[in-house]
């Protein structure tokens, strides 16, 4: 695997791929890699001639300084993991390489960011939009792979690509979970064994809420999920929402035959975790 840290090094390499008409799959990450990230890399490997992974903990998308400072950095291990799945190129720029001067650019995504992560983390999606746009311009991929775990981010990226005409196909990948159903996340590394156990109740809550969807209204289903969570007072809920999969608007009934998604965000041992379950109609 080739490891690059500067934009110019990558651009030189990218020129060769263009001349050979090779397809490039791209997986942007913030590192502290786990099986979820690797499943994206593997899918990209299957569908492209070359696969590029980026590791960059993007300061612009953290609205909480402590969360940024505590974000796990495990570059050596990440390199080993990426080599084990046959990643071709790792692009791991420094903060100065990505942002040589303070960024003034702000991005607004309107309605799709009005609730959930957009409401709880002011400025987050602007930071995501800026870094992803920059990475798309630098990497120039044919396809880019994003996890459904960050479903609102996926919708934002789709909108970004459409609005700015990036010639890139966005590929949405399923959520990788552990044996207890807990969605894999770099932030899980900050949890104790008890915290990990407790965190798997987020997935249980999604399942229990989903089970109501044939019987009741979205509001009632959410109430059942909230009632279940009361058994776990150490989980501090941010939101439990049922929304459509395109505009991420709150669902008012289950009668429309359209897929929907149940989304949860909560703090366990002070660590903010998110998860969701897509239900096909
Ligand atoms: P992150 O490093 O958390 O910014 O994530 C990088 C990419 O990996 C994003 O597209 C995430 O949605 C995706 N991802 C993170 N966790 C998972 C998971 N458990 N399953 C599938 N994709 C994931």
Describe the structure.
The mean pLDDT is 96. Helix content is 39%, strand content 20%. It contains 10 helices and 9 strands. It has helices at residues 7-19, 35-47, 65-69, 75-84, 95-98, 116-120, 124-139, 151-163, 193-211, 218-229; strands at residues 2-4, 24-29, 50-55, 89-91, 143-147, 169-173, 236-244, 260-268, 271-279. It is of the alpha/beta class and 281 residues long. The protein is globular. The longest helix has 19 residues, at 193-211. Helix 8 (151-163) links the parallel strand 5 and strand 6 (169-173). A 6-stranded parallel beta sheet has the order 1-4-3-2-5-6, with helices on both faces. The protein has 2 domains: 2-173, Rossmann fold (3-Layer(aba) Sandwich); 186-273, Pantoate--beta-alanine Ligase, Chain: A,domain 2. Helix 7 (124-139) packs across helix 8 and helix 9 packs antiparallel against helix 10.
């Amino acid at each position: 695997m080739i490891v690059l840290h500067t934009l110019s090094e990558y651009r030189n390499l990218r020129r060769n791929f263009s001349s050979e008409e090779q397809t490039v799959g791209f997986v942007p990450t913030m590192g502290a890699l786990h099986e979820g990230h690797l499943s994206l890399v593997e899918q990209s490997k299957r569908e492209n001639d070359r696969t590029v992974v980026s590791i960059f903990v993007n300061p612009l998308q953290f609205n909480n300084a402590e969360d940024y400072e505590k974000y796990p950095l495990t570059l050596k291990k990440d390199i080993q993991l990426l080599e084990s799945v046959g990643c071709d190129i790792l692009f791991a720029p420094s903060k100065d390489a990505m942002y040589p001067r303070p960024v003034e650019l702000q991005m607004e995504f309107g309605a799709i960011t009005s609730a959930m992560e957009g409401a709880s983390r002011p400025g987050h999606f602007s930071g995501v939009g800026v870094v992803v746009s920059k990475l798309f311009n630098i990497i120039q991929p044919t396809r880019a792979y994003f996890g459904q775990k960050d479903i609102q981010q996926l919708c934002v990226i789709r909108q970004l690509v459409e609005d700015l005409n990036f010639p890139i196909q966005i590929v949405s990948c399923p959520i990788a979970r552990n044996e207890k159903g807990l969605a894999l996340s770099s932030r899980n590394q900050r949890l104790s064994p008890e915290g990990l156990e407790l965190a798997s109740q987020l997935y249980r809550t999604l399942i229990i809420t989903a089970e109501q969807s044939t019987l009741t209204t979205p509001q009632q289903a959410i109430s059942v999920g909230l009632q279940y969570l009361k058994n776990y007072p150490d989980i501090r809920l941010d939101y439990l929402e049922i929304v459509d999969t395109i505009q991420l608007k709150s669902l008012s009934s289950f009668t429309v035959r359209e897929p929907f998604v149940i989304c949860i965000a909560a703090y366990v041992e002070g660590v903010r975790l998110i998860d969701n379950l897509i239900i096909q109609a």
